[in-house]
Write a structure and sequence with these properties.
Blueprint (H helix, E strand, L loop, with lengths): L1 H15 L9 E3 L2 E3 L7 E3 L12 H5 L15 E5 L5 E5 L2 E2 L21 E3 L3
Antiparallel strand pairs: 1-2, 3-7, 4-5, 5-6
Length: about 120
């Protein structure tokens, strides 16, 4: 349910984002992806906009990092990580990649451990 709500709240804003410092994401094939077509995921253990994925977790689930000076816009949010980097989020949920997704469009991480999910319609 949260995946559907996040998608409906944010996809239009994500596709329309034009700020040069704002990483754009696009919805394609029913899944939220970055501009290069890499699938983005949310993690059920993240709470209050704070990432719970570090160290070994982050090696398998790299955060979708924002460039320095990026600004949150519409439903795209920014989340400070413990290392001082900023991570993109959608509707307050930090976004991640899945390391085994090697090609654009891969979504091998959906449902892993019952806590990792693609955002889809």
């Amino acid at each position: 349910m949260i995946r559907q709500t996040l998608l409906s709240l944010g996809v239009a804003a994500l596709a329309a984002a034009t700020s040069p410092t704002l990483a754009q994401t696009t919805e394609k094939g029913g899944m939220l992806r970055d501009p290069q077509g890499k699938t983005l995921y949310i993690f059920d253990k993240d709470t209050g906009g704070v990432s719970a994925c570090y160290d070994g977790c982050a090696a398998n689930w790299p955060p979708y990092l924002a460039p320095q000076g990026a600004k949150a816009k519409d439903n795209l949010t920014l989340h400070a990580r413990k290392d001082g980097k900023m991570q993109w989020g959608l509707g307050g949920k930090p976004l991640y990649y899945y390391a085994p997704d090697t090609a654009a469009g891969d979504a091998k991480g959906d449902g892993v451990g019952g806590v990792w999910h693609v955002i889809k319609k």
